[in-house]
């Protein structure tokens, strides 16, 4: 089932999400719904707070970035062909590498893109959909997508990483999003 995406201004996007247990009710359906919602919205990642659940789950599919690259924009990335997976109860173990800028966007903040500087690698401890424990290091564009989604679990948004002047320049657009004055190709739920 395709779920509505929570829009900028919704309080849940600013909450720190909580870990879950294998007994979390409806987990299999929730994960299936998250994947369907992510793909329907043309996203490469989706965090549970974006579908109004303050729990530590996100999905990532950076494989589609490489698969859909017709201009060779991903040639310099070391993480080809990308990664597709579910991250539950993720926690950062280490950040490493040279910070680099990339133009990011977010399903909860549609039609706004800004350059965000992030480290080139992240090591995470997490469990997958079967609650198998993992500690893995991700690099390149995959690390960036993971860090973007991880921020959602910490109550942060990509716009929190931009300079104050840039944030001031996009304030009117952010206000319009929070008021529902925007059209997108997917279902959104706006703050009341």
TrEMBL record:
It is an enzyme of class 3 (hydrolase). Coiled coil: none annotated. GO terms for molecular function: peptide deformylase activity. The keyword Nuclease does not apply. The lineage of its organism: Bacteria, Pseudomonadati, Bacteroidota, Chitinophagia, Chitinophagales. Removes the formyl group from the N-terminal Met of newly synthesized proteins. Requires at least a dipeptide for an efficient rate of reaction. N-terminal L-methionine is a prerequisite for activity but the enzyme has broad specificity at other positions. Binds 1 Fe(2+) ion. CDD domains: Pep_deformylase. Keywords: Hydrolase, Iron, Metal-binding, Protein biosynthesis. It catalyses: N-terminal N-formyl-L-methionyl-[peptide] + H2O = N-terminal L-methionyl-[peptide] + formate. This is Peptide deformylase. Its cofactor is Fe(2+). Fe cation binds at residues 106, 148, 152. The active site is at 149. Belongs to the polypeptide deformylase family. Pfam families: Pep_deformylase. Its EC number is 3.5.1.88.
């Amino acid at each position: 089932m395709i779920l509505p995406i929570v829009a900028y201004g919704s309080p849940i996007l600013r909450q720190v999400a909580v870990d879950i247990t294998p007994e979390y009710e409806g987990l299999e359906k929730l994960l299936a719904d998250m994947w369907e919602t992510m793909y329907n919205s043309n996203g490469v990642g989706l965090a549970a707070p974006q579908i109004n659940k303050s729990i530590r789950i996100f999905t990532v599919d950076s494989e589609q970035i490489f698969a859909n690259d017709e201009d060779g924009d991903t040639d310099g990335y070391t993480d080809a062909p990308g990664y597709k997976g579910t991250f539950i109860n993720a926690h950062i173990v280490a950040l490493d590498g040279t910070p680099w800028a990339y133009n990011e966007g977010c399903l909860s903040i549609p039609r706004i893109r800004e350059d965000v500087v992030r480290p080139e690698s992240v090591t995470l401890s997490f469990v997958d959909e079967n609650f198998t424990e993992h500690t893995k290091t991700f690099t390149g564009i995959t690390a960036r997508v993971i860090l973007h989604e991880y921020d959602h679990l910490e109550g942060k948004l990509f716009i929190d990483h931009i300079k104050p002047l840039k944030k001031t320049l996009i304030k009117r657009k952010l206000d319009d999003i929070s008021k529902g004055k925007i059209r997108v190709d997917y279902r959104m739920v706006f703050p009341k």
